[in-house]
Amino acid sequence: xxxxxxxxxxxxxxxxxxxxxxxxxxxxxxxxxxxxxxxxxxxxxxxxxxxxxxxxxxxxxxxxxxxxxxxxxxxxxxxxxxxxxxxxxxxxxxxxxxxxxxxxxxxxxxxxxxxxxxxxxxxxxxxxxxxxxxxxxxxxxxxxxxxxxxxxxxxxxxxxxxxxxxxxxxxxxxxxxxxxxxxxxxxxxxxxxxxxxxxxxxxxxxxxxxxxxxxxxxxxxxxxxxxxxxxxxxxxxxxxxxxxxxxxxxxxxxxxxxxxxxxxxxxxxxxxxxxxxxxxxxxxxxxxxxxxxxxxxxxxxxxxxxxxxxxxxxxxxxxxxxxxxxxxxxxxxxxxxxxxxxxxxxxxxxxxxxxxxxxxxxxxxxxxxxxxxxxxxxxxxxxxxxxxxxxx
Length: 392
Ligand SMILES: Cc1ncc(COP(=O)(O)O)c(C=O)c1O
What we know:
- The protein is of the alpha/beta class.
- It folds into two domains: 9-45 and 300-391, Aspartate Aminotransferase, domain 1; 65-296, Type I PLP-dependent aspartate aminotransferase-like (Major domain) (Aspartate Aminotransferase, domain 2, 3-Layer(aba) Sandwich).
- It contains 14 helices and 13 strands.
- Helix 2 (47-59) packs across helix 10, helix 4 (101-115) crosses helix 5 and helix 13 packs across helix 14.
- It is globular.
- The structure holds pyridoxal-5'-phosphate.
- Pyridoxal-5'-phosphate binds at residues 34, 101-103, 128, 175, 180, 208, 210, 240, 242, 248, 253.
């Protein structure tokens, strides 16, 4: 039976890691995989996480099952950060559950949308490739709209049209902040407009918030999400702690559901729990428990926020340095300064991306996506020079 399966293409980014590891050049630059790196090229465990893990080992007295919803203390501790003080959560319209990372949350949200009758997922192009991959796997149709304008800002006409064409049964996938792969987020006035348009639309918004705090700050990065939630009756929110707590492989995420009335939440959450049970039964505990311990402790929370500030500052500094370089060959680097988060796209052709790798040892995704945290004050000039060389 298993010989019926066809070979699937290897994940392009994982293949890139192998190529990078095999490259013996000392000045090679890895801008591929999406993890934060310090100025020394490391992805360390947060100090606040180390401290919370120590506390966890000392105080945890059982590893008995918690249930498909996971650690509800974790889920609730995140609520003020995501939804703010005046959030609808306060009148009981939001409920949530723990998931294995943001990916588990997306899988659950989309499966639940499908159960509720969704047929089409409307997604800006380009998006994180796992978005369409999950939709395809669930048998959901994908409708694309253009996300990025040529000047490196958001294509507002693209999303206006997408909302105008929205039908019953459509889910609109939105990146809450730090858009992957473009780094192009909506400005506040653009979120205001999108929220107003969604108020009159039958579309169900699904907001993917995988990088809160890596853009402009924890509060600032939640602006769009809160604005949309203030205008629509129902929404799905997919959250990841894997970047903002540096927990990548521990798989820490949450799914939240907002309904028009508190009384409508129970049947929805019962479906989410049943789907979780059918997929992974229960989420992994360790990382979420560490996050909960941080958020329950004022000093650890301050330490975590401080570490997050340092990450964000470093990425801002890299972005500003690239933007200050202006032009590199035919590429205008200035829009990168106004973009947010780990990623931006350098508009190079596939051949130029290959030349960056072969001639200059710069490893970036075929789409031209770079992880800005892969750049340091020591390699940034070489990177800009390489772009000028291949695109000049
Ligand atoms: C846009 C977006 N959403 C969700 C995720 C999910 O992250 P994780 O499953 O690692 O928590 C990622 C990770 O790269 C992402 O880029």
